[in-house]
Amino acid sequence: MIYELEDTSKVYELFEGWEETLIYSCLQKVMGKIYVTDVEDPKSAFAFVGCFGFFAGEPDKELVREKPEGFVIMVPQNEEWASLIEECFPSSKRVTRYAIRKDTKFDKEKLKSILEILPEGYEIRKIDSEIYDMCLTSPVTADFVSAFKSKEYYLEMGRGMVILKDGKLVAGASSYTRYKEGIEIEVDTVEEERRRHLASIICAALILNCLDEGLYPSWDAQNMNSVRLAEKLGYEFSHEYAAYEVASESRTH
């Protein structure tokens, strides 16, 4: 049986040393959940938030097999966990993701200079109640807010900035997730507005906003384009890691 773990302190050691803010979100009970097969003395754990899941501790086939509904990106702590994912979900796609250092010292003046290249006719706005609703109208922007359990919770805990053109949302950067000390950044631009530096501009705006509040704007990269954008903003690359994209129709048999 799979159980949701209420006392997350019981699995701190299983995730020790894993610098991933989505795991922090789950352990701190800010958002997301921890699943185990033994609530009294867990030897294995699955931290799940948004569409990301992280397996730690002793490899447990039952924990892998009981996949949450929908598309999931599974991140194994080691190759033993990876082998279990491949066994349970043979149609899963192994991908390489890119971790970014979590101790960036940002150059605020450089970030402010990026804001100055905002093209005429474009406007930067914080994600408020009105913008939140706009985000949900498109799959490009829904991830800015959709991992939060409610609109009210996002407006309390989330942080986000968008760019509007003629009243339409064309780019944004937001907290995909939140943990006590900061956020994990999600950024996207609508197809027809790409290559106009809007991603750089809106990320700079969000990073500055976070720094003003004493929050850390964490970054994890899906591809090398994301790594290059992060480096432009002052981040430093850390290392590659493996993950598995498991489609909603995947089966364990």
Explain the overall architecture.
- The protein has 253 residues and is of the alpha+beta class.
- Helices cover 29% and strands 30% of the residues.
- It contains nine helices and 13 strands.
- Strands 1-2-3-4-5-13-6-12 form an eight-stranded mixed beta sheet, sandwiched between helices.
- A hairpin with a 2-residue loop joins strand 8 and strand 9 (168-179).
- The mean pLDDT is 95.
Reconstruct the topology from this structure.
Blueprint: E1 3-4, H1 21-27, E2 33-36, E3 44-49, E4 52-57, H2 61-65, E5 72-76, H3 79-88, E6 93-100, H4 108-115, E7 122-126, H5 129-135, H6 139-142, H7 151-157, E8 160-165, E9 168-179, E10 182-189, H8 198-213, E11 216-218, E12 220-221, H9 224-232, E13 237-246
Helix pairs in contact: 4-8
